[in-house]
């Protein structure tokens, strides 16, 4: 059966990384639920004939049939009939089906050990139900698969699981892996259908969630004018450009990832994010090495640095870097970066960034404070420091 590149990426992660909890979140019709279904079936089949228990959860029984069981019947080639306990046999195991939207739904999942679960519409499930199902999956090698459309960034599914993407267990097994889907990831959709959906979807929050799969509050994503098809270029395309100047942005971090981004301007005045270096739990010695390596390739360029760690800036200067205190004006800096995206004057070399791909979709406004939510902003902060500080003098000169 044919899969989209995004679905193949998910399958490869399961095959090579073996995450205990797998989350697929994003736009409607993006292909999340289908690949989740295939992976759940493969997981159950792995224990064929062992008589183990598995869980399928959804908001209501009707939504479970509509979103999961109808398609499951097509894949396995037979009719599914639930018994009095809302369960059915599959590959010599028992699948229990629970609706999980109510505050007391978690009680249905009590009392047995499961070897895996598939939770559909994660944001429509009660948080206690999700936690109870995960706690039930205590059999060795158990996997929990959750698919969901996005909601408010403060939703427990995002904060408790998606935001912990990459979390490891003491055994060395990957605990949580999260994937983000957009409508455009489903390459099998009719282009006319996609065009119609985009044209008829309201701007702001609805477009953010339904088209781009962003976890956005009512005020929406911060960089609304960023689009994969417009702003990403390849390394091969970048090599053909004539860059006339380079500079870098630095956001210090330890518990949250630190980052250094390399930025360039071409002879047409367009700006490019050429590469990112983002890593967690690294000391200043590591970032000095990164900066020295960048300097060896691009010369004595400016490094616009986060002023939160003046001792790190001093260290950079002592090591021969031209480290400059960044102007960290939040709203003005975001406005400048957003303006460049809007004008299509800021591009990103897609194969040279990784964390940026997540942050650009996760970076949203706090609808209460009007400030950006302080998550998924490490690379984007470095970009903001570099672009706003570097371009501010030019803006003053040109009025």
TrEMBL record:
Residues of the Terminase large subunit gp17-like C-terminal domain: 249-387
InterPro entries for this protein: P-loop_NTPase, Phage_terminase_lsu, Terminase_6C
Protein name: Terminase
Species, as recorded: Planococcus versutus
Keywords noted in UniProt: Viral release from host cell
Pfam families from the UniProt entry: Terminase_6C, Terminase_6N
Lineage: Bacteria, Bacillati, Bacillota, Bacilli, Bacillales
